[in-house]
Design a protein that fits this description.
This is DoxX family protein. By secondary structure, the protein is mainly α. The protein has 20 helices and no strands.
């Protein structure tokens, strides 16, 4: 029930409404959380989520399916740089042509710079040319803008995305991959390229040990984005959030109060973000995040979908990588039998 409440309200509130009447946060939450029906539904959603997790850990169903799924996802790891480049390059090109800076909520007084920056950085990432350098330029551009425009926190997912791309490089297919093959072979190009062996190879050798941090960077960054959006855009901004509910007549979709819509959306986003930060049931939480984005895509016809592609990409990346180290999933993996180990054990017993 909580997910159904949150789905269509999970958009960036400022992207789809010019604003609503200001509401006192304390009064709004008091109204929402003193209603017995609202409390019952929210409690049922929370207890249901905990019960599902407990039953899964106890019974471990669908082990063969999970083993096949994880093995399939692992086969996509070499395409992870391409996935991240597309996820960042496409919205940046769109932002450049539309004239906003990373987030549709932010326009700067220098429209020419904004357009050139978004288009140039976006296209170079799409082509995968000078990928690590361009990712660093993009990160500096975002952080520099954030120092002057706090509204850029609405697009905070660009930080882990740029950091992950800087660690992974262009991957393949990319212009960097083509250039590296030419420079590494006995070609005319390899004799005139002053950059590849002198700079690129030593830098990659130095960065490679940190590639294992990519799943951690992506899930923590995406989790922080979810928590921030759930708290600041929903729970702490009830006026604008209820304006979204009214604009799309969401109470006709699920007949509950506007307060429950807003609180349900905020709590769900914050809960999904917390799971991602902790690295608990990471692929499941990523699938829920993907479902929320997809529901927004089809449920809010005037939502700037292009601005959400980066979030789609990070959630998809976590489906491929899983939680990585320093996570609840890694802790559980060391103490319980994995799906692949279960399949091997069952197969040996059958044999």
């Amino acid at each position: 029930m909580t997910l159904s409440l949150a789905g269509r309200a999970a958009a960036h509130v400022r992207y789809v409404t010019p604003g609503g009447d200001p509401l006192a946060v304390a009064e709004f939450l008091r109204t929402a959380l003193t209603n017995p029906f609202n409390i019952a539904l929210l409690a049922a959603g929370g207890v249901g989520g905990v019960a599902v997790a407990a039953v899964y850990l106890r019974l471990r169903p669908f082990q063969r399916d999970l083993a096949v799924f994880r093995d399939t996802m692992a086969g996509y790891r070499d395409l992870l740089p391409w996935l991240l480049r597309l996820s960042v390059g496409l919205p940046l090109v769109g932002a450049g042509f539309a004239g906003y800076y990373f987030s549709p909520a932010v326009t700067l007084p220098s429209p020419t710079f904004v357009r050139l920056f978004g288009i140039a950085v976006g296209f170079l990432l799409l082509f995968g040319f000078g990928t690590r350098l361009i990712a660093f330029v993009g990160l500096v551009g975002y952080l520099g803008g954030l120092a002057f425009e706090p509204a850029l926190l609405l697009a905070v997912e660009y930080v882990p995305a740029f950091a992950a791309i800087a660690l992974l490089g262009g991957g393949r297919p990319s212009a960097d991959h083509v250039v590296s093959r030419l420079a590494d072979a006995d070609t005319v190009y390899s004799r005139i390229d002053p950059f590849y062996r002198a700079v690129a190879v030593p830098f990659v050798d130095r960065v490679d040990p940190y590639r294992a941090l990519v799943p951690v960077i992506v899930r923590v960054g995406l989790g922080v984005s979810f928590v921030y959006l759930g708290i600041t855009q929903k729970l702490m901004n009830p006026g604008n959030a209820t304006a979204v509910v009214a604009k799309y007549n969401l109470t006709a979709v699920v007949p509950v109060s506007p307060e429950l819509w807003v609180v349900g959306a905020g709590v769900t986003e914050a809960a999904v973000g917390t799971l991602l930060i902790l690295g608990a049931f990471t692929r499941g939480a990523s699938a829920v995040a993907f479902l929320l984005f997809t529901t927004t895509l089809f449920g809010l016809p005037d939502d700037p979908v292009l601005a959400h592609i980066s979030l789609f990409g990070l959630a998809s990346a976590l489906l491929v990588t899983g939680a990585g180290e320093w996570s609840v999933d890694a802790w559980l993996r060391g103490r319980t039998e994995s799906a692949a180990e279960w399949v091997d054990r069952v197969s040996e017993r059958a044999a």
